[in-house]
Amino acid sequence: VKENGKDDYMLHTGDMDPIALNKLTLQHDLRKALQNDEFLLYYQPQYDLASGQIVGMEALVRWKHPEKGLIPPGDFIPAAEESGIIVPLGDWVIEEACRQNKAWQDEGIPRIPVSVNLSIRQFSQRNLKGKVADILRSTGLDSRYLELEITESMTMDVDRASQCLKELTELGLNFSIDDFGTGYSSFHYLKNLPIARLKIDRSFVRDIQQDPNDAAIVSAIIAMAHNLQLQVIAEGVETEHQVQFLRSHRCDEMQGYYGSPPLGGEEIGKLLREKLNR
Ligand code: C2E
Ligand code: CA
Ligand code: CA
Ligand code: CA
């Protein structure tokens, strides 16, 4: 891909193999999509298991493609990460989530934090703290209401990550470990990173009812989190049985289709307003 001035990108594809071409086209389209403002955020509510109240929400990006319609993140985040577009895209996600959350707060909707997924590439930026500080300042959102989600990654340098997280926690925001249990260095992370919350991966929650091993793993993660003074939330909760199980094991929160799927800004705005009027 050759850059032609600021806003123009030209593809010189020659006779590349079709798979490589496809990837390049996608990366090219992602850049254009960012310029054309084609991304939007959905929000999935997070519920307190004891009270049933909405106590948080996760921002999940979608690409509103002019021809192909709404594209889920799984179809473009990997290419965005590989090409580095995830950095400006991720900046946009943080800013949009903060702006939206502040707008809801200004309406008088009870204040809840918004969680934003952070990619490893965003982490490697030197000025991430400065960027986040700028976004909080310009949107006016109190840092208490922004949470960042990171995943365990084999390639992540824990010392560097720890340094980066410490700097960011100085701003007053919280971190959670996403997809907990699926990575390679869970305990190392837990011991060395300043985090507030674990998110139990959906793959463990899914078969709680059928698989005693999964049930044992989930209850062990909850107990361990609490012993470490961490909050714990279960992901991908879909059934009443899962809710009962999690509640009886004192899991703090849940997120999943049982509560609500991710919703567009307008729809979740409505849900939050109903909560206000209750
Ligand atoms: P994630 O962070 O683990 O997000 C949860 C995913 O599980 C979401 O998929 C959500 O729609 C889905 N989900 C929620 N509840 C249920 C349930 O009860 N059952 C099932 N089967 N699925 C459920 P989504 O929105 O397609 O996002 C997929 C992944 O894309 C996310 O996984 C996250 O890793 C990534 N992603 C999304 N937004 C961003 C972003 O802004 N930045 C980055 N770096 N990654 C993002
Ligand atoms: Ca997440
Ligand atoms: Ca997750
Ligand atoms: Ca995941």
Structural class: alpha/beta
The largest pleated sheet is described as: 8 strands, mixed, barrel
What pattern of helices and strands is seen along the backbone? EEHEEEHHEHHEHEHEHHEHEEH
Number of helical segments with 4 or more residues = 11
State which percent range the strand residues make up: 15-25%
* Shape by Cα distribution: globular
Strand order of the largest sheet: 3-4-6-7-8-9-10-11
Determine the oligomeric state from the structure: single chain
Indicate the low-confidence ranges by residue numbers. 1-9
Domain EAL: 23-276
Protein name: Bifunctional diguanylate cyclase/phosphodiesterase
Keywords: Membrane, Transmembrane, Transmembrane helix
Organism: Cohnella suwonensis
What does this structure look like?
This protein has 278 residues and is α/β, with parallel strands linked by helices. Helix content is 45%, strand content 22%. It is built from 11 helices and 12 strands. The chain has an 8-stranded mixed β-barrel, surrounded by 4 helices. Strands 1-2 form a two-stranded antiparallel ribbon. A hairpin with a 3-residue loop joins strand 1 and strand 2. It binds ligand C2E and calcium ion (3 copies). One calcium ion is lined by residues 178-179, 199, 235. Keywords: Membrane, Transmembrane, Transmembrane helix. This is Bifunctional diguanylate cyclase/phosphodiesterase. Residues 23-276 form the EAL domain.
